[in-house]
Amino acid sequence: MDATQMDHAGSGQTLYPTLVTKRHLKAVNEKLDQQLSTSSSGAYSEAALKALFSSVVTEHSATLSFAAKAIESSTSQCHQASLAVDSSTKVCKEATAKVDKIVSEAHLFLDSLQAAATKNAQTVNALVESLQRSLQSKRSNLEVARQAIEAVNETLHANVNDRLNQLKAELVNYKLCTATAEVNDLKSEREVIRSSAADVHSILLPLITIRRHLADKLRPTLDILSRIEGFPVNCVQPKQGGEKMTTQPPSGTKPSTEPKGNEASVSNKDKKMKKIGEDDTDNEDDVYAENPKNPFQKVKPSEKEIKENYKKQKAELEQKQKEAELLEKKKSMFPIWTIDSLQRCAIDEPIILWLEPVMSFGIENSKDAQFHMPITRKTFIFHCFNLTAAIPSPDPKVDRDILEFYLEFAQPQYLTWSSKKITTLKFLKPYSAGKFINFKFKVTRGTEGSVHNITFADLPNLNPHDWILLNNIHLSNPQEYQPIIDHVKRILVYYIHEAAKIDQEIASAIHKRTTIKTMGRAGNVNTMVKGKIDSKYQTVMFIRGEGQKCLFALVDKYLFSTSCLEHILEIIQRCDQNSAAEKKSLIC
After folding, report:
1. Are 277 and 192 in contact (CB under 8 A)?
2. 226: nearest Cα among 253, 246, 247
3. Contact by Cβ (8 Å): 192, 310
4. Which contacts (CB < 8 Å, 24+ apart) does range 450-457 have?
5. Separation between Cα atoms, residue 336 and residue 339, nearest integer Å
6. Rounded Cα–Cα distance for residues 496 and 389 (Å)
7. 208 half-sphere exposure, CB direction, 13 A CA radius
C-alpha cells in the first residue's frame, strides 16, 4: 500500500481492497528504500519489519482473495455471458438457417418469377407484334376503304352536281318552253283580236261613208225645210277620232261647211279595238291616214282572207288546247316512276294487279293503231331485270343496278307511250349511261311520220307492242343488234311470264277460286266448231281474217285486251252449241 492508504489504515478508517499490480509493488519498494536510506537510526527493528511485512502480506492476501472473488464473479458472469452467447449463437444459427431457407426460397421464387416474367414478356411481345400486324392490316384496309369512300363520295358529288345542272337546265328549258307557249298563245290571241279589229274597221268604214254621204245629201233639203216652215233642224256632224258629235244650229244661209278631205271619222269603239289589236313591237300605224284618197296606210286583206285566217288561227288554238289537255291527261295516267312509288306498289299495296285497264288517248280505228296491252308500273318489279348479257342469274345487284338505270335515264311514260305503230327505226350512236351502255333510237310513228327519240332506258315505258316491233326490226341484222335483241327478248319473256299469273292474282283479289285448268295440250283445231267451248281442254276455235284457224285458251282470257276479248266472247255467244251455263260461267 502507499503512504496515503497506510495513513488511512492507522486512523481506523475502513480500507477497501484494491487490485495490487507490479507497479504498486515497485512503488512500495522504492518508498521502503527511501525510508531506509533516510532513516536516522540506520536500521529498523525486526519486529517492525515483520509487522510491516505481515500487514503487507495480509493486505495482499485480502487483495488476492478479493481479486479471486472478483475473478470468480467475473468468471461466473463470463460463464453466464458465454451461456447467453451460446444461446444467442444457437438462436442466431437457427435464425440464420431460417434466413438462409427464406433466402433460398426467395431465390427460387425470384427465379420462377423471373422465368414467368420472361415467358409473359415473350407472350406479350408476340401478342403485341400480332396485334400490331393486325392493326397495321386493318389500318391499311381502313385506308383503302377511306379512299374508296372518298372516291365514291366524289363520284356522288359529281353525279349530284351533274344532276343538279341537268335539273337546272331542264328547269330553264321548261320555263323557256312555258314562256314561249304563253307568248305564242298571246300572239295568237293578238292576231285574232287584230283580225277582229280589222273586220270591225272594214265594216264601219262603209257605214261612216254612207252616213257622211246621206248627211251631205240631206243637208240642203233640211235647210230649205227650216227656212220654209221655221222649225229647227239638228245637223249632226261626225268628227275625226271619235269626238263628240256637234249640233249645228240652223242658219239662214246654206251651210258651206263640208267635211274635210283629210279627216277620217272613227268612233271610240274603233279606237279601243285598235289599241287591243295593235302590236307593241310593231311600229306600223293601223289608224286612218290623213289622206283623203287613201284612208289607210297599210293595205287591208279581203273579207274572205280575214275569215280564212281567223278559222285557221282558231283551229290551231283548238289543236294546241287539245294537245295540252291530252298531255295533262297522260301525265295523270302515267305518273313519273320513282323508287318510292315502285316499292309502295310492291310492298305497301301488294293486291294491285300486274295488269289493269289503262286508257290510251288518241286511239283510232286505222292502220296506224297497234294492239293495246294494258300495263302498270308494278309489272316491272320482278326478277326479269336481274339478267343482262353474259351475267348469270339470279343476281340481286344487277337487278338493283338495272332498275336504277331505268329510273335515272328513262323519259316520263306520258312522253314515250303511244298507240300508234312504229314504222321506221334508226339506230344512233350508243353512249355510256352509268354502269351500262345506253342505245338511242330515232323512230317514226304512223303515216304522218311523227318523229320520236327513245333510248334503251325507255323500254319499260313503251307500249309492249313496241317491244315486238323493235325485236322484229332488229332481227333484220341479228349480228349487229344481238345485245339489243337479247334485252328486248328477256323483257318480253318475263313480261309474258308475269302476265300469265294474272288470273290467280285476280282470283285472289276478288276472293274466288279459278276453276279452269289447262290440260297441257290442245284439241284438234280442224275438228272443232267455231265458237264451241271444248269442255275437256277449255279452248275455243276462232278464225282470223286470213282464214287461219286458231285456238283461244279460256285460262288466258285476262291477258287479252278488251277489244280482242269482246270479239272472242261474241263468237262464243253466237254459237248455239254452247249451253247457257257455259256462257254465264265464261262471263263471270
Report:
1. no
2. 253
3. yes
4. 450/420, 452/416, 452/418, 454/411, 454/416, 455/409, 455/410, 455/411, 456/484, 456/487, 457/405, 457/406, 457/408, 457/409, 457/410, 457/411, 457/433
5. 10
6. 20
7. 21
The angle at the Cα of 29, spanning 26 to 34, to the nearest 5 degrees, equals: 125
Residue 286 predicted with pLDDT over 80: no
- The region of weakest confidence among 150-154, 203-207, 282-286, 415-419 is 282-286
User: Exposed, middle or buried by CB within 10 Å (0-12, 13-18, 19+), for 19?
Assistant: exposed
Q: Is 479 exposed, middle or buried (CB count within 10 Å of its CB: 0-12, 13-18, 19+)?
A: exposed
Per-residue pLDDT reduced to its tens digit, 545-579: 667 777 777 766 655 555 567 777 888 888 888 88
Residues of the chain above pLDDT 70, percent: 60
Q: What is the mean pLDDT of residues 378-401?
A: 46
3-class secondary structure per residue, 295-312: CECCCCCCHHHHHHHHHH
Grade residue 298 by pLDDT with cuts at 50, 70 and 90.
very low
Please state, as a whole number, how many other Cβ atoms lie within 10 Å of the Cβ of residue 266: 22
Comparing 347 with 4, the larger pLDDT belongs to 347
**Cα–Cα dist 60/67, whole Å:** 10
Q: Please confirm whether the linkage preceding 392 is cis (ω < 30° from 0).
A: no
Average pLDDT over residues 475-495: 73
CB atoms near residue 314 (< 10 Å): 13
Q: Tell me, what amino acid is at 230?
A: G
Give the contacts of 357 (CB within 8 A, at least 6 positions apart). Answer: 374, 562
The model's pLDDT over 329-359, given as tens digits with 9 standing for 90+, comes to: 667 666 666 666 655 555 555 444 444 444 4
The alpha carbon dihedral of 352, 356, 357, 358 has a sign of positive
Specify the pTM.
Answer: 0.33
CA distance 236 to 212: 10
Alpha carbon distance 584, 511 (integer Å): 19
- Ordered by start, the domain boundaries in the chain are 3-172, 186-315, 337-509, 525-587
